[in-house]
Amino acid sequence: MAIDPEDCREIVRACKENNVILAVGHVMRYHPVSRKIKELLDSGAIGDIVHIQHLEPIGHWHFAHSYVRGNWRNEEESTFSLLAKSCHDIDLICYWMGERRCVKVSSFGTLSHFTKENKPEGASSRCLDCSVEETCPYSAQKVYLNRANHGMFGWPVAVVCNNGVYDIESLTDALKTGPYGRCVYECDNDVVSNQVVNMEFEGGRTAAFTMMAFTYALGSRKTTIFGTKGELRCKGKGPIKVIDFVTDKETLYPAETAPFLPLHLSSHGGADYYLIDSFISAVANNDPSLIISGPDDTLQSHLLVFEAEKSRRENCVVNIDKEGH
């Protein structure tokens, strides 16, 4: 939405004053799995929510690509990593909690490993002429050239070839001279690589979110929701498992997907398609209620992210009023 709380508020004010239909790209709300989880929670499948445990595994090479070498590596040039990478997930937790407002937040996080102090002995400033490249999991040779050698010129390779020519020669030249060929231990990155956010919602409900760079999985979120009558578990695309405390029965719920998804709208497990579909329907019918990532909900979850980062920086628990302060 924006990288400053007041700018977020101004966007919402402008939309409301001018009757603008706004959908924010919080695609995780539109993910078939996320919506099925919401349906199960609202139906009382596990009773009242007591606690949500949610993990976003960024993926070790993805973090190196985007948050060490790439566009979101430096807070002054972009923003802090919780907002850049995980505002989706904080928003998703709020979505599942429903009408309950977050009243308290604490957060801890650091930039781990990707610092000059951790540069291996004998390592070069660029991967393509580095003597220890073979033993480095973040090597540009592994992340980019190995993919290109197998004909894989989509993301992330396409980002590196910024001249619009997608071949080995262009990629090699970009890695020799551009930011994506730099040693991950010699970049100007300063955003945190691992962060936890603890939240208390109205009624004593709690949630714990973890954003983690150092994972093998990439984006395959893992969620456990504990209720008074059952437990819900889900990883990635599902299925969703619900365990009933009364019967001890385990039930699996697959998430519904569209019968056909265009390739360019298949990202995020098909959520991109459902986001665009709902926005078009809302505009065509002049009905903002068809959007589930509208201005008010998005503003509240953004403000929560800003308060979580305040907690991390100031090493304190932040109490949140109804205005998001």
Automatic annotation (TrEMBL):
InterPro entries with a match to the protein in the record: Gfo/Idh/MocA-like_OxRdtase_C, Gfo/Idh/MocA_Oxidoreductases
Transmembrane segment boundaries: none
SUPFAM superfamilies: Glyceraldehyde-3-phosphate dehydrogenase-like, C-terminal domain (SSF55347)
Residue ranges occupied by any Gfo/Idh/MocA-like oxidoreductase C-terminal domain in the UniProt entry: 38-315
PANTHER family from the UniProt entry: BILIVERDIN REDUCTASE A, BINDING ROSSMANN FOLD OXIDOREDUCTASE, PUTATIVE (AFU_ORTHOLOGUE AFUA_4G00560)-RELATED
Name of the protein this chain belongs to: Gfo/Idh/MocA-like oxidoreductase C-terminal domain-containing protein
Native organism: Engystomops pustulosus (Tungara frog)
Phylogenetic classification of the source organism: Eukaryota, Metazoa, Chordata, Craniata, Vertebrata
